Amino acid sequence: MKLHQGIFVLVFLASFCNCNDDGHQSVVIETPSGPVRGYHEALHDDLYVHRFIKIPYAHPPLGDLRFKKPKPVGRWTDEQGIPDKYGPACMQQEIGLNLEFNPECSEDCLHLNIYVPGDVSRDKRLSVMLFIHGGGFVIGSAGEYNGQRLAAQGDVIVVTINYRLGLFGFLNLLDPIANGNYGLWDQMAAIRWVHENIEAFGGNPDSVTIFGESAGGMSVHYQTLIPANIGMFQRAISMSGVVNRQSIAKNDDLQKVLNMISDKTDCKQENKAELLKCLQKLPPADILGIINVYELMTPDNFTVEMLMGPSIDGEFINGQLYETMHDRSSPGTSFFRSLDFMSGTTSAEGSLLYFSLMPNFQETFNFSVQDGIPRRALCEAIIPGLIQELYGNRPDLSQKLCEFYTSDKGNDDQSNRATDFYGDLCMVTPTTSALIAHGRKNTAHRTYNYILSAPSPAPFGPPPPPWFRGAGHADDLYLLFDMPNVRTENRTDERHTTLSSRIIRYFTNFAKTGDPNSEELPVTWPPYYVQTREYLDFDFELSVNKDFHVDATRIFQPQLRELFRNEKQEL
């Protein structure tokens, strides 16, 4: 047994209470941080878990701790853990997605939840999967993701975490006094808390996989490039999100935020120390009101501005990691390549486009997204707007992309080509880049790629237009978690249940050994090699294919052409 930062190993209390006042069978365990109460919850097929929820991993970031790195929680004496109510989500705006899960929000939100399969025993030394939620760094919470099924079927401990969002998590005053990325530091603090405490829950701190989706997948990739995380986890899964061209705010965008603060509050930016003190005293609602994402959207253009996300702070993020992750001499890339890595996307990530096109944009270009996305809107606004934002003034690239994503097969196909453009730009090409950066000449650690093709019975976000085809963004989450946002009762059949069981088995096998395969699974999933570029297609019938949207990747990343030119060359 290990000592934890000078604290002697506490005796694990396996003393089950008959029940608590609410009738839940419970167990209290002693962790290095203090006592935690968990609750027995039966599932089906004789499976059950113990759920430990609302466990603090850092001090509440209130008052002088607002816009600061998380402060370690230390040790508590009173029991933590409540029977049936998750802790509050971190502060966030309602952005109009009409999600059914609307949690209470609070700045006192730095909690995590733990799901332990079966009985809790320190001797089990189970592998651990720590999930980082998505939501564009502005919405989401750990409470949306019930990890019971994943834990019970996969026989792993599942952890879900909150982290600060929006300006609370990423305000950068362009000064060392408050230089952003507090949400990423929160994630790191939660990962460290799990490493130091998970043995008490029966987990193995030397077999931890971090995984996340969308902004959570991007966060996972960030964490794999930070050498301070060495030893905290051994594997990583980035789902529909990696470090990309959009993922770091530019200084011009950060200055826009400072200007908005001056316009909308009484806090002025001449003296950064005084500005910080003023912002720390504002009511939380005033902070939320500084940026309205809809005010940033113009009716005749389509751009991406990272005003409330990661930025270069000189400490957590030193530069454009999207470029430097291919530099095998850098400490961050060396750490990344010392892990086992899995990454993939859905087949139609561009579903994000159809519910991002605002009514005034549709009116300007005289179309309704329900009827389709016309070539004119794609070629005159969507492509050049995004290319200008991400690549600079490149009319040649915009024209080439317009030609590539133009279809002569009718309105429905043209509309899906438009969503393909958005998905390829934002998700597919960056994922390919990350896989190459990890797998190229890396014989010591494994790389895996997947695509989810099976459409969800209850797609994420607004109902998809009738022309849309494929599995959209976030449509993989219901296969791993029971989610209040994804109401699938009476809308799933045996195909979905079977696919869910298979994905859980592949993912948890990977978390345990670095190899997703086992004898009971019907298809052998080959590693991703730069020469072969194979992936597992998660459809109702599994298959191994290669080169998902490779022609698009060649256009977006010319520097990768040499890697694709000759499959037999040693890379």
Automatic annotation (TrEMBL):
<dbReference type="InterPro" id="IPR050309">
    <property type="entry name" value="Type-B_Carboxylest/Lipase"/>
</dbReference>
<dbReference type="InterPro" id="IPR002018">
    <property type="entry name" value="CarbesteraseB"/>
</dbReference>
<dbReference type="InterPro" id="IPR029058">
    <property type="entry name" value="AB_hydrolase_fold"/>
</dbReference>
<feature type="signal peptide">
    <location>
        <begin position="1"/>
        <end position="19"/>
    </location>
</feature>
<keyword id="KW-0732">Signal</keyword>
<keyword id="KW-0378">Hydrolase</keyword>
<dbReference type="Pfam" id="PF00135">
    <property type="entry name" value="COesterase"/>
</dbReference>
<dbReference type="InterPro" id="IPR019826">
    <property type="entry name" value="Carboxylesterase_B_AS"/>
</dbReference>
<feature type="domain" description="Carboxylesterase type B">
    <location>
        <begin position="26"/>
        <end position="545"/>
    </location>
</feature>
<comment type="similarity">
    <text>Belongs to the type-B carboxylesterase/lipase family.</text>
</comment>
<protein>
    <recommendedName>
        <fullName>Carboxylic ester hydrolase</fullName>
        <ecNumber>3.1.1.-</ecNumber>
    </recommendedName>
</protein>
<dbReference type="GO" id="GO:0016787">
    <property type="term" value="F:hydrolase activity"/>
</dbReference>
